[in-house]
Structures are given as structure tokens and as C-alpha cells.
Amino acid sequence: MLPKQFVLFLLLIFFTGSSSCYGQLSARDIVEKAEDRVIGKTSFSDMTIKIVRPSWSRDMSLKTWTKGRNLAMILITAPSKDKGTVFLKRGKEVWNWIPSIERSIKLPPSMMSQNWMGTDFTNDDLVKESSTVEDYDHFLRGEESIGGYNCYRIEMIPKPEAAIVWGKVILWIDKADFMQLKAEFFDEDGILVNRMEGKNIGILANRRMPQEFHMTPIDKKGNKTILIYNSLELDKPIDDSFFNTQKMKQIR
What is the span of the domain harbouring residue 60? Predict the structure, then answer.
């Protein structure tokens, strides 16, 4: 007969191994997988942003490049008054090139909570100074169906040392394809401020994902911003040197 301590040791090894074997994912793993589906190792996208207000609407066109989670570039290509405006992210630094005054400005963390180019997205939502993976603690809060898709429901709480716009964020991520289908953004008092929903599920870069994201401010009736992917390319080589302040002045 095996000693009791040895049996317990074998059981411990078995259950530890079985958890890994069946690929049980932590809440952080799920968020990371969802993000990786959209950004890959590198990404290039052509987008349209439609700003909707009760009495008017306008469109904006842009191109974006990313490499990992620390390098990103956004170029506005239309309308003409904003054409050539560029945003650059390098690690925690965010720069803005303004062609009309031929100056690049380093954005302070305090500006991350402000609306990006008159949309309902914040600077942090699009330029992403903060990281959904590194700057939050993640908690799996069960499952819920969104539009017929069975989703993980994940609560993200900012880490104490992170300079985060939101008091908490709740994500709904599809269990089959790790598509982010819904997100709710709360202030520090726990009040819901914005809701983002993934729409028009299709194929982009050979991956199943929403082709539109609708951001709706809760307290502004009739206001909405729609981000539309016109195209997306993933995992094509981009050199780190592309993401620098000099390139901001030259990119087209």
C-alpha cells in the first residue's frame, strides 16, 4: 500500500496537470486572446469613424499601424481639415503631430480621459496608453449570451499604480472565437458612462470578428460613434523604426 502522503502528492500532480491539459483559461488569458485576435504581432487597418449626433453626423477616415502592445500609429486621411494629423504611441508615451502648426506635442496622462477628435471614444480607447492586459486585474464573473453568442463576462479593475481613465470595465468575450462583443465603462463612483458593442460579425484577416464597434455615451441621448473596419492585415513585418516622431511628419 502506498503511503498516504505519496497518494496525496500523486493527486496533486494529477489535478494540477489536468487543469493545464484541458486548457482552462484565466480571465487575463481570455482578455489577452481577444486582444491578440485584433492586433496580432503587427496590424495595419483602414477605418472609417462615423460621429452621430441628434442633428448632424460626419465621417472621418484613418489608417492605423500597430506592433505588439507598445507601438502604434494613427494617421487621419479625411476630412481635409484634419488630414495629416497623426498620433503615435511608444510604450507609455503618446505624441500628436498637428500639420496646421507643424508641431508634435507629447500628450500628458491627464488628456487620456478626453474625447478623441470629437468622437465618443477617449484618447485612451484608441491610442491605448493603458494596457487592458497589464494595467488591470481580471476577474471571471460568469457567462452570458450576447446576440446568440455564449460569452465570458469579465470584470477588469485598474491596478492601484496604473493611471487609468475608468473605475472598472466589464467585457463580454465570445467563448468560441474570443471576439469582444460588448464592453461597459464605469467611472470611479461605479456609474456606467459608455457602452461599446461589436456589430456586423464577419471575416477580417481570415478571422471571425466584429467589423463595427458602436460606442454610446449613456447620458447623451442620440449620441454615438461607429468605428468601421474597411480592411485589416495582420502579422506583416513592420520595423520598430517606423514608430518614431520623425515618421509622424512624413507618413501618408
Answer: 26-67+117-238
On whether residue 53 sits in a domain, the answer given is: yes
As a whole number of angstroms, the distance between CA 76 and CA 142 comes to 39
pTM for the predicted model, two decimal places: 0.85
Alpha helices, DSSP H, located in the chain = 4-21, 27-39, 123-127, 245-250
Contacts of 238 (CB under 8 A, 6+ apart): 42, 44, 65, 67
Is residue 74 one of the residues assigned to a domain? Answer: no
Closest CA to 120 of 220, 228, 229: 220
> Is the bond preceding 54 in cis, omega lying within 30 degrees of 0?
no
**How many angstroms separate the CA atoms of 154 and 90, rounded?**
28
Q: Does 103 map to a domain?
A: no
Residue 80 belongs to some domain of the structure:
no
SS3 content of the chain, % helix, strand, coil (to 5): 20, 45, 35
Predicted confidence (pLDDT) per residue in 15-28, tens digit: 333 333 335 899 99
Burial (CB count <10 Å: 0-12, 13-18, 19+), residue 252? exposed
pLDDT tens digit sequence for 79-92? 999 999 999 999 88
CATH of the domain at 230: 2.50.20.10
Buried b or exposed e, range 10-29, using 16+ CB within 10 angstroms:
eeeeeeeeeeeeeeeeebbe
pLDDT tens sequence across 137-163 = 999 999 999 999 999 999 999 998 887
Long-range contacts of 99-108 (CB under 8 A, 24+ apart): 102/249, 104/245, 104/248, 104/249
Give the number of domains in the chain.
1
Here the cell at position 134 is 497589464
